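Re: the request from the purification team.
They wanted to know what the chain is likely to look like in 3D before they choose a buffer screen. I agreed to run a prediction and write the result into the notebook, where they can find it.
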Amino acid sequence: MKSSVKEDAPPLTEEDLAALHAPAVPREPLLRARGVTLQYNTPEYMLTATYRVSFDIGRGDRLVLLGPSGCGKSTLLKAIGGHIHPAEGEILLDGKVITRPGIDRGMVFQEFDQLLPWKTALENIVFAIRNTRRTTKAEAVNEAQVLLKKINLGGFEHSYPHSLSGGMKQRVAIARCLAVHSAIILMDEPFASLDALTRRKMQEDLLALWSESRFTMLFVTHSIEEALILGSRVIILSPRPGRVTAEFDIDITAHNELDNPALIRLRERISRILLGDAPEYSI
């Protein structure tokens, strides 16, 4: 049998051997929030939405921000999107402080009317591609068609937003973020207004899409069940001003098993934290 090693290959040096056995250098998080306090003015007083919130998001993470209404979840997304600036602390994307909006942060809102109404589903995605990347129209159309098939909207390419259901519109909005190659997709309760069956299907489709593309996602919700289904990590925020009170890693194999005993116990623990019946802790 012939050896697969070339006979004239130079021998490994001590430096080579040291490099082979050296521990891997951990990758820097894609996004970092460091002591972020967010405030805004009301007619009567200054309102503090979040207080010294810190967390990291790695590449390919599915981080869920979970908390009661008014705890600053959506305000944090706006700050990451570059639409408001922290009163204290900083938010960094790829090591650079976020100071303004950019296409490296895609956004999917709760409202259905976020597509251009005068353009079809296909045209909405093509428009996003051609206005953010150098590509021919034919290439953009081909890429948009592939994405529409991935989100199970093949056959609806030429449908206008007014003729699409709420779930379909959200699919197009997600595909548009993927089309412009956003570094992170920010989702502000995008399925909250859908009926229960459509919402569950959208959650399953989002996980399937993530399994294929491994995009980085920050998802806001006040539903414990949705957090357990979609998150690889869940951060719990306190009532306003929002503070990080707990953080949990989710077993990726258990997402579609809500009757899994471990998830049932975790759901109960999260519920106690949100209701104020449990101490603050992280695992």
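For the purification team: Helices lie at 14-21, 73-80, 121-130, 137-150, 166-179, 196-213, 224-230, 261-274.
Please add any questions underneath this entry.
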